[in-house]
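Why do we bother with holo predictions? Because pocket geometry can differ from the apo form. Keep that in mind while you read this record for iron/sulfur cluster.
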Amino acid sequence: MSGSTHSIVIPTKDKMLNLGEFSLKRPGNQITAVILVVGFILTVIRFTQGIGSITNLDDNAPWGMWIGFDLLCGVSLAAGGYFTTVACYIFGMKHFHSAVRPAITTAFLGYAFVVFALLYDLGHPLRLPYMFFFPGTTSVLFEVGLCVATYLTVLFVEFSVAPMEWLAQKFPFLLKWRKYVIKVTILLTIFGVCLSTLHQSSLGALYLIAPSKLHPLWYSPFIPMFFFVSSMVAGSSMVIFEGMFAHKGVHHYMDATHLREADDVAFSFAKAASFILFGYFMLKFIDMIVQANYYYLFSGYGMWWCIEMLFFVLMPALIYAKGARERNITLCRIGSINAVAGIILNRFNVSMIAFNYQLPASERYFPSIWEICISIFVVTLIVTVYRFIVYHMPVLYEHPNFRDEH
Amino acid sequence: MNRRKFLTILGSAGVVSALGTAQVAKASGGTTTYPYYENSYGVLHDTTRCIGCRRCEKACQQVNNLPMPAKPFNDLEVTATKRRTTADAWTVVNRYMIKNPEGGKDKPVFRKLQCYHCNDPACASACFAKCFKKEPSGVVSYDGSQCVGCRYCMVACPFYVPGFQYEEAWDPLVLKCTFCSPRLQKGQLPGCVEACPMGALTFGKRSDLIKIARKRMDKEPAKYVDYLYGEYDAGGTAWMTLSGVPHAELGMDMNLGNRPMGELTAGALGAVPMIIAFWPVLFGGVYGITKCKERLVKKEQEKAIAAAQAQTKQALEAAVENIEKTQGVEAAIQVRQALKTAQQPPSDGSCCCSSKHGEGV
Ligand code: SF4
Ligand code: SF4
Ligand code: SF4
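The structure, written out:
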């Protein structure tokens, strides 16, 4: 790091830990602590008193916030992993290289915590592996589970390079492992994109079996495709979105290469996202026409659909297009906020707002405050673990010991 | 149209639809669809006979050892609120007030709701741990010992039937009507059927029940709507409903179509092998092209660099020779020495990003 003016703390053999950043003196850390304590208490209640004790779930709404946000949004927002690796390694866009490791890290964390959060929602969390013993091959959920489990493993292997570089000083045998992993990068990338295509789309396909429950403006035989296409938007937007926060919070852990490339990455991804968003808008629009759903446009749900399409699909597309053309990083970041909000809104619509649309309001679901708290708790956990990783492992910078090979 | 032609059209339609099903079955690995069990049993609920006495509810509670509700079963006003089945109540009878077209008082019609024991159940298709099974007897059974509690079956069931034990912390299960399978095995009637004082519930072979229903509808066309709910709905169900008013007015979903719900996901699942086969080829190809392009670019670059180097070398040589001529050999030697040191490659192998890049993450 000789050339860099940043003071990155690189753990050494004698001082592997760098926990000073978590000192409780800072307000951010205090808020984190409060959320973690509340989350922990809720966790105890959930697992000793049953799901009903802290949720508003019922027989009509068996899936709520924890599926709609933690699973659906979690998985699509973690799409940055496959999106960035494919752009960098497969399409050879080498100037994205410094974005790959942060993207893989967040994707890995995202998926790991999707599974973690899922345990809260399952009646029998410990039986999750049963799906491999009694595989229900006709179930879309089986495909989702299989792909997520495999992809989590792939992400773990891809991510493992960072912790290995960190730990290699203490455990030199890791150097050998690291070499093996690096050798199969391309293989992992291709495997990863296959798995991502499958499960991103199958998350939408989950709803194919319930045509009578999901509003026709959102139900479509093409919903798997919509989910996949929008996951690409989510992936690219999240890279920009996260970058924004990383620059605020952990700026001093970024090396010169990362800082130099960061804006270019944002502009390229903004441009890509804008194209995909326009395409997505057209797909949804044509689908609406082809299915002759325009009758619904003049209902309340129709209004809501128009709001989603105009302000959360078309608008981010335009903001991105302008931001990328004028190389205006602020605009790109605003676009990413808008796009991420749009993804979340879409997943909420499919899983909660437009689901069970035929039931009277009194039988509809609205998440309880505790369900929302658990979701916040999970996000906080992700951020905390992300910070731990960034403080210890070469994610935003290149480790000096491994620089030459790069 | 003559008879022959008619039969031909019918025949080809049959072949086409058979092909259609075969394709669906193949696309999903042939496991989506349960075969139709010819000798399976069912129950026919004739709502024109039902008086909403709730004896079936009570019997169900008793034979299955379910907890008794707060309001007693002889409180018939309970039927006025729209209830659904839950983990503690596997069957409910609801009252629907039907407008009298000629004016006058509304007519109450009662409908019993329980698991319909679909021919090819959505719940079974959706369960990723294979908890549900369509038995040859007609029963859709549930094995809670392998249930993960994901509740996708509840999302999938088009009739809003399965209930979940949300208050149970350690062994929450999905519960629904069992068709009194244990009783059937002992040769007894389902509890609710046995308890019905009006003969509104008829137990029998599904094929016979369809005939019985037909006969009733034919005999008294004024009394019945000419539709047997469950004969084809959602691919057909073992429990079927006859009604004197349009079924939609009894809160029954008339838009489920006549194919099993599971088939809707068969297409998506059928695409899986395609993606697994095709994506690596596609992305591998793109990767190959990228690599190839990189190699070409590198070669070009090397060529250009070599040419540039040769040029500078020539120019330098010319300059030094010039010095030799004008300032003497001594000065030229010094200059050559200086140049040699300057041309030495830099000691720290400075990184060139586009050269070698296998690095993961
Ligand atoms: S009615 Fe619902 S629970 Fe019963 S068999 Fe059909 S899909 Fe399954
Ligand atoms: S809740 Fe149980 S029975 Fe229902 S789909 Fe999940 S594992 Fe299967
Ligand atoms: S068949 Fe048995 S379990 Fe089902 S509703 Fe009737 S009494 Fe209850």
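The two ends of chain B are 71 Å apart (CA to CA).
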